[in-house]
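Review box. Two proteins, two foldings.
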Amino acid sequence: MRGFEIRNVRRSFPSAAFRAKLDLLLMLLEYFQMIDRVETVDLNAKTLTARSVVPAKSPVFEGHFPGYPLVPGVLLIETMAQACGFLVLAVTDFAAMPFLMSVDSAKMRTFVEPEAVLDIEAFLEHDGSGFAVVKAKITSQGKKVCDAQLKLRTMPFDQVPLGPIVKKRAEEVGLLSAIAASATTGE
């Protein structure tokens, strides 16, 4: 279902509790699932590549900018953060949940329009003591889009009850398959 169709369905349910749950679903579907597919993971080199395709239409574009839709820079940073989070999950064998803590040295190099294919690369520089330092970059058609160094706070899943949700999302985007492929090829 597309967002518009879900909004129409939402109006037909009288229960406020049900509508609130549907609103959460809309937010996750429309705005915060930035990675379409994890392409590769190299556990030895501590790298990950992923791909995303910017949708042709999104409520985000209604205000950014009317008549000239561009992906907001903050969503590009979120895309890099999610790729880095998936990398940390892979390298640590899902031991802890990574949370974005800081964004350092971020550079936005060009605009991203609807339907752009984004190639994302993440590199783990340090992991330990409850923190990870990662670098990420996004390219599109071989051109640099943005890059940044990110710091992630990692918390054991017994302290953060998100394990099943994160594992399900990791499976949906192909992270588990990429990890298995890395293990069989020795990467």
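Next protein.
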Amino acid sequence: MRRSLDTTIDRIARKYKQYSLWIIAALMLLSLFVMQVVQNTSLVTALTVTVVFSLVCNLVYGECWKRVAKSSSTNLIRFYLVASVLRLLLALSVFLIYLVVVRERQAVIGFALIFAIFYIVLLAFDCLYFVRVEKKINKTESE
């Protein structure tokens, strides 16, 4: 039974990372397309920072979720809260560092827009994905 649960958790974490990667790639390509259409490629640096932040956060989040789910599934609720707060604080840190380094108003506004879109889309994805996962797990455990 435990082996089956571990395999399920591994599969869920792998799917999460895969879907996250697809969403980040789609958002990146859409952003690049919009930059081409409006003929403004000055935000490529902002897009690069945002994509790297998103990739690192989601890969670490997926790996941490897998470890917490395997060790103690009762702690998952606490994990979701702590991970969301840490991600928010890290996002604010990245934004403030970008603000200090760049200091150009238009570039910072563009970065904030791109960063916020990525952050909100990925936050919505996390919520929807793990609500579905929790429902499936609870349904399986109750049967």
